[in-house]
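Now for one record.
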Amino acid sequence: MEVRTFETERLLLRPTNADDAELTLRLYNTAEFLQFVGDRNLRTAEDALEYMKSRTFPQIENLGYGNYTVILKSDGTKIGSCGLFHREGLDAADIGFSYLPQYYGMGYGYEAAKALLDAGFSEFGLGEISAITVRENIASQKLIEKLGLTFRKIVTIPNDPEDLLYYLITKKEWEKLRT
């Protein structure tokens, strides 16, 4: 199965691979990730690689999409990740994102997520795409809403007792936004 790479005006999104273990380690240990997502107990690049082998790579191999490393086209800097994920306990593919703090507020999150949202509907054949976040993560909520997803309900997912805000956009709603 061919796995696509995506390009936006300023970004390259390519499937996350073993060369991204150091970035994953950094992303998963930012204060924001630890606060809003949780501690995945990644302490070394080797821990990150093992996590990626068990969680990230199988989805890309099985579905043709998953987690993408977000890279600045201008200089090749890896600044974060964005992906479409199948999460246990959710009905729809879930769009998620994580960036290094020095790249917040520059529009990269929206640019990357919009490219994957569009691909989810136009190339991967998804009928709806969801997003989840905690109540306290206002920046994530704003980005999710800017993408066109709307709040639908409070959910919990297996092995996570926290209430999560569940947002959704259907393909039909996405098509309306594009016209």
In short: The mean pLDDT is 94. The radius of gyration is 15 Å. The chain has one domain: 6-178.
